[in-house]
Amino acid sequence: MNHIKCECGHVNPEGTVLCEACGKPIEMNQHIDGNDKKKLLNMRYEGSARRSKTYNKTIIDKIWNFFSSVKVGVWLIVIALVASGIGTIFPQEQYIPSTAVSRDPQIYYPETFGILGKIYYQLGFHNLYSSWWYLLLIALIGISLVICSLDRFVPLYKALKRQKAKRHESFINRQRFYSKTESVEQGDIESVKESLRKQRYKVKEEDGHLVAEKGRFSRWGPYVNHIGLIIILLAALLRTTPLLYLDDYVWVREGELKVIPGTDGEYYIENKEFILETYDQEDERFKEAIAKEGIVPSNFQSNVIIYKSGDSEVLGAETDLEKVTEDEIRMNYPLKFDGYALYQQGYQLNEFANMTFKIYEMNDPDAEALGEFTIDLYNMKHEYKLDNGYKVVVAEYYPDYKLTEDGVKSETNDSNNPAFVFNLYPPESEDYEISFVGDVIGAAEDLGIDTTVVELQPMGNVVGTFAPSIDPTGENQYRILIDSIDFDRKSGLTVRKDYTLPVFGFGAIIFMIGVIQGMYWQHRRIWIQRKGDGVLLAGHTNKNWFGLKKDIEKAIDGTAINMVEDQNEEE
Amino acid sequence: MESLLSTSSTALFTAFILYLVATLFFGATIKDKTSDKSKTGFAGKLAISLTIIGFIAQLTYFVTRWMASGHAPVSNLFEFTTFLGMCLVFAFIIIYFIYKLSVLGLFALPVAMIIIAYASMFSREISPLVPSLQSHWLAIHVSTVALGQGILFISFVAGLIYLIRQVDQSVRSARTIALEFVIYSLFLFIGFIVSSSVFNAMGYSASFDYPLNDKTVTTEYTMPAIAGPYDGTLTTEGVMEPWFQTPEWMHGADAGRKFNTVVWSLLVGSVLYGLIRLILRKRVGAAIQPLLKNVKPDLVDEINYRSVAIGFPVFTLGGLIFASIWAQIAWDRFWGWDPKEVWALITWFFYAAYLHLRLSRGWHGEKSAWLAVVGFGIIMFNLIVVNLVLAGLHSYA
Ligand code: HEM
């Protein structure tokens, strides 16, 4: 390294623009901060030697310089900003509404949004925020942040530590706030000093020259907040490991006891009751709004018991359960136990649980049932033998029946809209009749009932009798009709374990400390230099010049010292 | 209950009128020849006092409505937007006491009034809180966000003053056009307010049936339908037939009605703007410029930056940090890339870019002023377009 010795005797590192001690511009380096073309000195980094401005030979230099450029940093931020915006034009994949034509993105986007939707999908914008290039962008911002901060923080710190009260005149008269007074008594200087101390400036003296300084710590604000951001990015990285982060989902019916997924069979949950409450339509406060916008739910709640399985040999043996806690889970009030958290996420009130069917003779005017059987949908048998000799075999079962252009299918494995193909064996017969029964929801919709709004429970029983019972051959002697339906209420809970949260929280706190430190305080300095009988006065602040001006006005009040000029305005 | 509510609306109306009167007095300060800034003239003192009384009146609205409904009145579009206007006034009062710059009030208060009037076009009933909103975090998060945005709005106000003062109006240029466009956009808000109020007062109503997701639904227009719903049929008799249909690609419930409102706002706003131009016979910016010749551009520039410096941390805290904490509690994930969340992130990125450009690339003065205007645009986009069009989980409407 080629050190540069200043006339004041201080030895500066290579690339220094303004001497660290006295501030004298070092001639050969003025182009670095653009001082050669301006009257005022660029004080951004105190003219300290930054690596990025000093070396540009090796490939490492080039990479360093690329990432430490704020221009590059801002470009990265702007690209991320624009990309994020594009990602909100159409819903992201996880937000495709359940009412959509299809939840298959390949169909949904073109069908719903036409050609633009197709392009959107093909460019991967439907999954933008987890796409490799979006993540790369965020990572690049992170790298840029680190390098940029290191590049500036270290030299800036050194320069501020080494600054002296005595300054070179060419440093003082090239500050934005500057004044020259021909003749000043020592008493005036003492009074200024006193006043500055009262304004909580730290005053340093050297050979009768003064520097008063306050709020230097605010200069570290940006670096502190960048560290906060880095911690947040690291937390996001940590979160991708399953060790620290668990995200699962469980549906539990009322009365059901179930192992909690993701806990390795260690914990069980029992749903005692699911509660859905709505606001009273007569409530004086809300009745107008409810009349206008419809019923509003006021509470979703599951009353649950959590068990831990004992140290039995067979992990997960239900016999050995030990109660951990009994509690309510409501929206906004998750249940926490042993590092896990359960959130009230969804519910389903109209899941079909038990269906009772009756067998009738075809075209029987009296509609006298020949027999009945009940299917427990959670525990379905292959065949049902009736007392009077009839036998029903479940040939096909669609838990969530839907008739589409491509034929019939079951949309999910939940019994939201069951439909059956039965083989009915009359007593002592080897031959059977085929009939199709079910699709209650379809029948309801055909009747013009909007099943997404309606509480199905009582409705289901009425509609059940209208549900199709189709005779595919046209030669059947019997028909099977739905007699009654029991519905279940089930509660959807997310299971979370997230040890990265404290890391995110820590990063956020550091970030806030950093921005507040940098934004709500400013680093102000006032120099008073003796020159002959008079003084040179200069002031610098990293922001809020208005505030600095008021400080100076107050300090020189009642003295012979001239108020500073804003040399920026003259330009 | 009833009386609380009526106190509440009276208080809001009072606040609005006081802001209006205060604006006039701030206008009177323009003529002040006193070059000594530390001495505020009589008009200026009166104006800021009226503003403070107006703010107290609006605070009364806020508190009484809170008492009446039992929850913080920031839970629907009317309440939130009104509160945003209040935060803008609050931020203005603070900045006023730092810089004592009266001309700021002349621009800040009208913007606040436009925002409050815009708010009152949405349904004003007290709505019950759905379970996801029943949390203290509602008040904490929303009030911090709105406060942050209110402070950031001051940077827009300062930026606008700077531009009107500094942009060379003697020749037509891209800058004069862009500035006129900003002013014209403010007229569109007025257009929206005027057309909604007029048709509201007339009690206009027309119903349409239109298909939505394979079902037929009904929508009620409160303004004559220039743009009907796509494939809709008018079911009310004796009212104006739509001139054209809302384009098919505008999807979602009530797309037609919303689009129709936009058309009316454009129409009325443009007519108003056109009339003003006819009267003035020059660009609106050019007409205001001479009034601002006593304003020091450097000071306005500093206010622009200072309000971002104060507002950015507040916005970060409310819009990103408190938001994440609440999202974690209510929805089990602190970040979900919901459009509203993404736009808060975009706002944050944008102001971060503003700060970096200013600090490290020397974007002062006019460049900063333009950025402040764009920032305002982004926040308003989040308020209007995201709520009414892109709406995800956070949808208020
Ligand atoms: C979105 C991410 C970022 C945020 C929120 C952020 C935030 C901040 C803030 C609040 C400041 C202080 C500004 C002021 O005092 O006016 C700052 C300064 C700064 N940031 Fe960032 N920053 C981000 C990304 C970056 C990146 C990617 C770079 C690298 C190119 C960078 C480099 C700097 C530099 C060089 C300073 C100035 C420090 C100084 O001059 O004292 N920042 N940042």
TrEMBL record, chain A:
Q: What is its main location?
A: membrane
The topology of this chain with respect to the membrane is: Multi-pass membrane protein
Please give the Pfam families that the UniProt record associates with this protein.
ResB (PF05140)
InterPro entries recorded: Cyt_c_bgen_Ccs1/CcsB/ResB, ResB-like_domain
Sorted UniProt keywords:
Cytochrome c-type biogenesis, Membrane, Transmembrane, Transmembrane helix
Superkingdom is Bacteria
Compartmental location: Membrane
According to the record, the segments passing through the membrane are 72-90, 132-154, 223-245, 499-521
List each coiled-coil range: none
The chain positions of domain ResB-like read 70-553
The protein, known as? Cytochrome c biogenesis protein ResB
UniProtKB/TrEMBL annotation, chain B:
The yes or no answer to whether the keyword Protease is present is no
- Keyword Membrane among UniProt keywords: yes
Sorted alphabetically, which InterPro entries does this protein's record hold?
Cyt_c_assembly, Cyt_c_biogenesis_CcsA, Cyt_c_biogenesis_CcsA/CcmC
User: Pfam families this protein is in?
Assistant: Cytochrom_C_asm (PF01578)
Where in this chain does the record put each Cytochrome c assembly protein domain?
Answer: 74-170, 267-394
Give the residue spans that cross the bilayer: 12-30, 42-68, 80-99, 106-126, 138-164, 176-199, 262-280, 308-329, 341-357, 369-393
Q: Could you tell me the keywords of this UniProt record?
A: Cytochrome c-type biogenesis, Membrane, Transmembrane, Transmembrane helix
Q: Its domain of life? A: Bacteria
Q: How does the protein's chain sit in the membrane according to the entry?
A: Multi-pass membrane protein
**Where in or outside the cell?**
Membrane
Name the record gives this protein: C-type cytochrome biogenesis protein CcsB
What is the source species? Ornithinibacillus xuwenensis
